[in-house]
Amino acid sequence: MNTYTSHICAQTVGYTYNALGLDGCILKYSVAKQDTTYYIIATVRSSRMNFLNEPMMKIRTFNDEVLTLRGVAISSNTKSAGIISGNMVLPVTQISATAQFFITPKEFEMLNNGVSKIRLSMTPMNHERKFKKDKIGKKLYQFYLRAKDKDDEF
Known about the structure:
Blueprint: E1 13-17, E2 25-34, E3 37-46, E4 50-51, E5 56-61, E6 66-85, E7 88-103, H1 105-111, E8 115-120, E9 122-123, E10 127-130, H2 137-152
Antiparallel strand pairs: 1-2, 2-3, 3-7, 4-9, 5-6, 5-8, 6-7, 8-10
Helix pairs in contact: 1-2
């Protein structure tokens, strides 16, 4: 089971991001529902990025609407290993951090317009990514519709 999906039973959408020669990161997003509240669950795997205790997610849609979602860091795991290169052992660390962000049904409707930019408040630096085409907005909206339909099927 993947470390970034073991905490939820939902579909995920994500991307790999390598910023200007810095270590890359893998981000995954999914939708969860607890009681009547919806969340976007964000998980990052990288060598150094971690969520703040109360992170924020800013999203700009292709309709130029801006959403500001407040969140809570829910887990952070660190794995260390070594890579042998010649006669040296190089240390490698991987962090897997997860946060959940509260989102309303109305805000999910806005995501259906597609996500053109996303920013996550993290340490040691924020994650920011611009998209020429929607990679996550419509998928998250579809995940929301599925979560909503599960209640209606009861």
